[in-house]
Design brief:
mainly alpha
């Protein structure tokens, strides 16, 4: 694990494009990352990713099995997840 100085030095060595992509990644939701990077991978690779990263999408009510992946491929399901996540965040902010 690197400290803050090492992290800052590493970020400073990035090209402008790399830094932009890194910031997009940091600021994006897990669902955005899923759509951009994982959605079109074979199911076996997605299952491996979910197994290796159990915290990924933990804020979304979706199973991380083959059936859940098939649901995630549907735009209407992802939009429903976004809506639920937004409402849950609003509720947390209001309490």
């Amino acid at each position: 694990m690197c400290n803050d100085e090492e992290r800052e030095e590493s970020v400073n060595k990035m090209t402008e494009e790399q830094a932009g992509r890194f910031m997009e990644f940091v600021l994006s939701s897990d669902l955005d990352y899923y759509e951009d990077e994982l959605m079109f991978l074979p199911i076996k690779e997605q299952l491996k990713f979910f197994a290796d990263n159990p915290q990924f999408m933990e804020d979304y009510p979706v199973t991380k099995d083959e059936q859940g992946i098939m649901m995630l491929r549907k735009r209407s399901f992802r939009e429903t997840l976004r809506y639920i996540h937004k409402k849950q965040n609003e509720e947390k902010e209001n309490n």
